Amino acid sequence: MAYRVRRDKEKRHRRVSRLAWAMLAAWACLLLRLALVMLVPDWVAGVRATARWQDHIRARAELEHLRVVRTDDGRGRILFRNLEPWSGRRWEGRLALGRHLLFVAWHDERRRGPLWDPLVGTVGAPDVWPARDRAVPEQGQSGLVYAWDDWLHTGRPAYVAAWRPDEVRRGAPAGEVWQMPARPGWDVVTTIDPAWQEVASRALRQAGVPRGAVVVIDVATRDVLAAASWDANRPQRVVALEPAVPGSVFKLVTMAAALESLRLRPQSWFYCPGQFRAPGVRLRCWRAHGGLTLREALAASCDVAFAAAGLAVGAGGIAYLSHRLHLDTDGLARAGGRPALAGLLPGRVFLGTAADDGRIANTAIGQQDVRISPLAAANLAACIASGGWVADARLVRGLAHGGRVRIAFPPAARLQALSAWTAAQVGRAMRDAVISPRGTARALADAPLAVAAKTGTAELGTSPWVNGWLVGFMPYGQPRIAFCAFAERLPSAAAHRAVVRMAAEIAAAAARFEGGSLHTALRQPPAVGP
């Protein structure tokens, strides 16, 4: 009995001791925090959260006696591949501050630069008040500045301040001016080339389309060199990355699937009377082509031949090759394990699983449920140009700070989606589309570089408007760039003229770049270091 009483007392003593030690530790932590708040307040609250102007003047009470002007919002910038700025605006001027006339350089990411594109996005007031670690409340609202806002937002803005005039009259020293430099956020380095982006933007403007896009991709690296978008009614819309009905551009996939599955050969023969009839299928071609081979059918964009080719391959073959070509994704490589852009819609080929002959025939010519983006179309041309290997296009190549790329994002892994023979046969048919008398892209026959191309005219239901497409690569034989010109919702003839004009601008610029007569950032990339 005595032993049990003694054991209970020891248990109570141990519990009381543990409680006392816990209370003592809590008080010690509280006292340590209070000491740190008094000694180093910036460290406790976080340097990014407490970039307080009043910590940099002689007395905190003096803040109300100063005139303070913010000269730099401190946000990081969206950069081109050569580290030239793409987003925001920097400018210099004189600032009258009290009795002082100062020469000041301003930086504001809310202002747009001359090459601004909706892909960059906009910065503005937040929809919800931001977290406490933001020294400046503005946030990215769309595009890259939204997707990478957690890296771009400022650590501390820059200020300049001087005594207010009434304080100077009361005896404050008139010559004192305080300046606090910014502690900027990180910069996002894209793969966009400033010279190519200017060419793409100019081509869109000169074509006069109300909605469209121009995309240029480096065949060797799959870097996006240009991605210009325009929508007169919705300026924030990134047309270059939005899936749309591709029309005859998708015949590139159908031909590749027919050759890869050994269902057809380039010399397989078809006859086009102007319409295609099969059980459950009624389809009209845009003209009666007569007899032609599969290769000639791609050059002439014959709907009858490709409806038959699609039925020969089947829904499974078309869907399988589309998946291998990454046409059912958004087409952008991930950067550091995260999406390069937020909210992109993936492409698609079939909706649902059931596919009758009518759906297969219409899918084979790029109608029905098929949707791909101009970026994916340009990457498809790059796959054919490179001998059949596919990789997601890279848009973000790293993060920079202090003028150097500190974190680099490698290109996406390669996959051999097509055999080299298939890619060569499809590429040769694309070249025939330019040089053949019946080719639908023969308007580019006089381009300064040899172009291989495929046109597309996508019907939009019962609407009289169409989507106009022109994809390709150049120079044929030693391809360096792949491109896509896209015009949305125009009359058929106007859409064709617009995309041909845009493609001609790209070919002319590529020839000038080949000769080295224009500045281009395709030179060696900046150094990557710690």
TrEMBL record:
One of the record's GO cellular component terms = plasma membrane
> What are the alphabetically sorted keywords of the record?
Membrane, Transmembrane, Transmembrane helix
Membrane-spanning parts? 21-40
The GO annotation for biological process reads: cell wall organization
Q: Spell out the SUPFAM superfamilies in the cross-references.
A: beta-lactamase/transpeptidase-like (SSF56601)
**Protein's name in the database:** Penicillin-binding protein transpeptidase domain-containing protein
Q: Which Gene3D superfamilies does the record cross-reference, listed alphabetically?
A: DD-peptidase/beta-lactamase superfamily
Among the GO molecular function terms of this UniProt record, one is: penicillin binding
Give every Penicillin-binding protein transpeptidase domain span: 212-486
Q: Which Pfam families match?
A: Transpeptidase
**Which residue spans adopt a coiled-coil conformation according to this UniProt entry?**
none
Per the UniProt record, the source organism is Alicyclobacillus cellulosilyticus
* Superkingdom: Bacteria
